[in-house]
Amino acid sequence: MTFGGVFDLSVWGYVVVALLTTHVTIASVTIFLHRHQAHRALTLHPIASHFFRFWLWLTTGMVTREWVAVHRKHHAKCETEADPHSPQIWGIWRVLFGGVGLYRKSAADPETLDVYGRGAPNDWIERNLYSRFTVAGLGLLGIIDVVLFGLVPGVAIYVAQVLWIPFWAAGVINGIGHYLGYRNFETQDASRNIVPIGVLIGGEEFHNNHHAYMYSAKLGNKWWELDIGWVYICLLESLGLASVKRVAPRTAFAPGKSAIDVDTLRAVVANRFHVLKLYGRRVIAPVLHADADAAPNFPRKQIARMRRLMIREDVASLRHDPRTRQWLDAALQRSPKLRTVYQFMQQLKALSNQAVRSDTDRLKRLQTWCAEAEASGIRALRDFARQLQAYTA
């Protein structure tokens, strides 16, 4: 059947066109809006930067400054009443299917734009075209689709292009990404990695990784997590069109290193989520299992959940798991050893979170922490302190 467009394709041909064009839009969002503009994790050559800006104007009508402001506010106010799109506050169904409405409401707030929208493009073309005529691009896109593919396929492709970002970005990433999935890091918020293959949404599937290290240009963290957005960034960098500024810190253990020095301190502070995860596995988990062996009524099935709860950045914020919290409180009251390792962990958290302290002061605190941990009489804690001495950035 001929539809009168420049290109007469099969049904699957039209599907491929829709998928490819919407994927370019996803790549533009994750590379340009998110990693480049919102978090400054990479720089882009003007050619690449302007292509992304033009493509987003054409396919979404989104204003760069508005997107950046809403996203930065999400990080600053995550899982609170001021969060523009938290499913923990607004409910999963409202964010999943009405996320674009929540986005527009926040983007229309002048205070949000003033506080969080700084540094976004403000050149002539931004002021006189992209920000001024936001729907003109969408209108032009509709005309292009109909001319190229005919009325019926063109309209179908256009609908897919227009709805792609509102559903996948405003709905799935902001909704599912804070509701279902797995966690590599026990951040203070409810962020989740949706799936281990980040292709459909450009790598934004690794939302928990992003909240742990928001200034990283690479969202995948485990070796098996495929971040297609990072693949594109590496390709752009090889062509001289991008330059990576920051990625999540990678630390290692230096064999034979036994002194707590500034390098150790910086490694602990920079990679605190990894340190706390190791602490949970190598200190808290053995103590919990020992308590379970000594107490017949101990809820063994909850050990993993209690361990994650203990290393969570803000235990008081966990409103949705009261039963596990009760088991944890009871275990802390019953077990002096568990209370001890929990208190040591809180001290370690406080150490890594102290941004105003000098390195000299924090270094003394870390040295004291390791010395007291070794003298605690708890084997798992002692071994962890000795291992920590070999930590290096």
Quick structural overview:
The protein is mostly helical and 393 residues long.
Keywords summarizing the entry:
393 residues; mainly alpha; 2 domains; two-stranded antiparallel sheet; two-stranded parallel ribbon; 18 helices; 62% helix; elongated
What does this structure look like?
With 393 residues, the protein is mainly alpha-helical. It is 62% helix and 4% strand.
Structural topology:
Layout: H1 11-38, E1 42-44, H2 46-59, H3 64-76, H4 87-90, H5 92-107, H6 110-116, H7 124-130, H8 136-149, H9 151-175, E2 197-198, H10 207-212, E3 226-227, H11 228-238, E4 242-244, E5 252-253, H12 262-270, H13 272-294, H14 303-311, H15 322-334, H16 336-353, H17 359-374, H18 379-388, E6 391-392
Parallel strand pairs: 2-3
Antiparallel strand pairs: 1-4, 5-6
Unreliable stretches: none
**Helices and strands: which structural class?**
mainly alpha
How many beta-strand runs? 6
Q: What general outline do the C-alpha atoms trace?
A: elongated
**What summary fits the major beta sheet?**
2 strands, antiparallel
Please report the distance between the alpha carbons of the first and last residues. 62 Å
Strand order of the largest sheet: 1-4
Radius of gyration: 24 Å
The H-and-E topology, N to C, reads as HEHHHHHHHHEHEHEEHHHHHHHE
Number of helices: 18
Number of domains: 2
Task: Give the overall average pLDDT.
Answer: 88
Strand residues, percent? under 5%
Which percent range fits the helix content? 55-70%
